[in-house]
Write a structure and sequence with these properties.
This protein has about 200 residues and is an alpha/beta fold. The chain is built from six helices and seven strands; from the N terminus they run ααβαβαββαβαββ. Helix 1 crosses helix 4 and helix 3 packs parallel to helix 4.
Length: about 200
């Protein structure tokens, strides 16, 4: 999807995916400690990054959409938390290396020619012992109307993520069905893959 697509979506009234964190991410709150550094990848309007900041993490929220990032800063201000933002095309971004305790990737779907490289960049952005927490749609999502790309090549499988993150220590990797309640665009039954991987 183009930056123009996301800017148009985020210009709509309210928050496209709500203002509460992704449920899988929120279920990992016990892994997150105040003072940790976090990178929220393709963070949209900031629901996940702002939640992390509310836990006391030092968060960099990165997205291609300046409209989404403005709403991220507005959401952070409304919650009384600080967050850093960066506008970037993740395919061209100079990814940090060895800087973060956690990288969060929630429904960030990349074109096939970018996917493996960007997933490896997420792992490389971590300090030793750091974690990637990822949720994405699987090809089965094409059977549902609860969101995600309608392009099979942009959907992720367990095997694909195992290969992309082979340099890390996989702590959790499962495909499952869930019920999404994330604003107007992620609502209803969904087929997802969930990953937690540690940088050795």
């Amino acid at each position: 999807m183009s930056t123009e697509f996301w800017n148009a979506r985020y210009r709509e009234p309210g928050y496209a995916y709500g203002t509460e964190p992704n449920a899988f991410l929120a279920s990992k709150a016990d892994l997150l400690k105040p003072g940790m550094t976090a990178l929220a990848v393709a963070d949209g309007e900031g629901r996940n990054g702002v939640w992390l900041a509310g836990l006391g993490l030092d968060v960099l929220s990165v997205d291609a959409s300046e409209v989404g990032l403005r709403k991220t800063r507005e959401l952070a201000a409304s919650r009384g938390v600080a967050i850093r933002t960066a506008q970037a095309d993740l395919g061209r971004w100079a990814w940090p290396r060895g800087e973060f305790d956690v990288v969060v990737s929630i429904f960030a779907h990349f074109a096939p020619e970018l996917r493996a490289r960007l997933h490896q960049a997420m792992l490389a952005a971590l300090k030793p012992g750091g974690l990637v927490i990822l949720e994405a749609f699987t090809p089965e999502q094409l059977n549902y109307t609860s969101g995600g790309p309608r392009v099979p090549e942009m959907l992720y499988s367990v095997g694909m993520l195992r290969a992309d993150f082979a340099a890390g220590e996989v702590l959790e990797l499962t495909a499952t069905r869930t019920e999404l309640a994330e604003g107007n665009y992620h609502s209803g039954p969904a087929a997802v893959v969930r990953l937690v991987v540690r940088q050795p």
